[in-house]
Design a protein that fits this description.
Length: 65
């Protein structure tokens, strides 16, 4: 959790934009009677994983030698 807090503090504008995009994707998914979640959740999860890997140095991740 500390790593995530640090990532947000280092790039608050990018994280705010990402949060807005997640809210929009969630709203669109709810508007389509939850069917949109079939696409939105995997896309958001995959993109979040890539963004997190780009923000956090590889050697700062737990489990790395």
């Amino acid at each position: 959790m500390a790593t995530s807090v640090r990532a947000v503090s280092e790039s608050p504008h990018a994280m705010a934009l990402w949060a807005i995009l997640i809210v929009i994707a969630t709203a669109l998914s709810v508007a389509t009677l939850m069917i949109g979640f079939v696409v939105a959740v995997p896309v958001i999860g995959h993109a979040t994983w890539h963004a997190y890997r780009d923000v956090v140095e590889a050697d700062a991740l737990p489990g790395r030698p």
